[in-house]
């Protein structure tokens, strides 16, 4: 007889000791195997990755590498080499706060660490913080090197309200440390003098310098290009006499400096001839400067030929030609250049659009103006203040004040030029609206300038608003510090004369600060 089958038992919820031990053992072996599979990256292997992060200015890569270095404890140890590379990556990626926090947390810092942070802040548009960090560096007892002082000098050039005081202090420090003969430092100090407008001091420093290179010459050329075309020409001749070979930046600076200059006729042609011999004639920046020089001096034929001979053209080249043609009184040709530019596959920028809008205003062509406005919307340039100002002026001169006002109302930001353009648009035919726009400008806290006052006084003259005219005229100097000019007096005299107030007009003429015959 068969024995009865054993009854089935419910599975136990309590793990067996052997099973627990076996599970833990397997987990241990799996973890150990995983650790064996994970490569142990030595600290020095991170340097190329950090260099790539700095080269690409990738903030995500910089943060990821920072996390990896922290996880492996490489930053808490004495890896100052890696810390400095990480600092460079942070500041190149514009992670300024991240970089400053890293600098504070570094167990050891050397001159490279501080210099990296100072350079990063300077290049990131935070010059005041860069100079403050230099003071911290000196208080920490770390002597600056020549690269530190060059970056600090560069920062001092962009700190407003301080003049050349900080630059002179840095120069004195460089002399004490023996860096005054370094050409890089000399160039930085020279640039600081030029940026602050101390050209006499810059020339003295240039003449007394122990060493000069092409950057030294270019820095002084750039200073003269904005202030004295005569001295610019003199320095250019001195370069040739001393046998200094000009580079592309030299040619570009001199040619731009001669734009609109009386010295252009003689020196400009000489520079052009030297340019052809130099081999820089194919440089697009140099070509654009050559084009600018001819067009701004209304040398239309030479400018057009220079444009035609350019092997490489960019949007600046086309824009310069379009603006130059407009400057020379050829608005139709200017618009044709913009059309050719688009057909050539070059999309216009904001300066091109502004020039095209001005050409439409000159021609009074509303249809062409609307096409230009369409390009603005398509390119997404309708948020640019300068472009919108040009559109307002264009619509006003094409007698479409309604369109001008729509552009004005759509603007998120308005400058005093925007308000002035809208006031002038309303002044002819809708004088009361012009006065209202001026009052709205004051309520917005925008201080009117010479042109804004002229526009509202012209509107008062057109509308016959004598009392408002006197209020605005008297407020110019008293409340806004704008001295009335000849055009303001002319508007007031016209306003009073139209209103039949001849005696008031004569009395105003008698107290004008200039000869009344100018207004006749």
TrEMBL record:
Biological source species: Oryza punctata (Red rice)
Cite a single Pfam family from the UniProt record: PPR_2
The UniProt keywords, alphabetically, are: Repeat, Transit peptide
What Gene Ontology biological process does one annotation of this record name? RNA modification
GO molecular function terms attached to this record: RNA binding
Q: Which domain of life is it from?
A: Eukaryota
Question: Where do the PPR repeats lie?
Answer: 110-144, 314-348, 415-448
Official protein name in the record: Pentacotripeptide-repeat region of PRORP domain-containing protein
Q: What lineage, starting at the top, does this entry show?
A: Eukaryota, Viridiplantae, Streptophyta, Embryophyta, Tracheophyta
> Transmembrane region positions?
none
> Which InterPro entries did the record assign?
PPR_At4g14850-like_plant, PPR_rpt, TPR-like_helical_dom_sf
Keyword flag Repeat: yes
> PROSITE patterns, alphabetically?
PPR
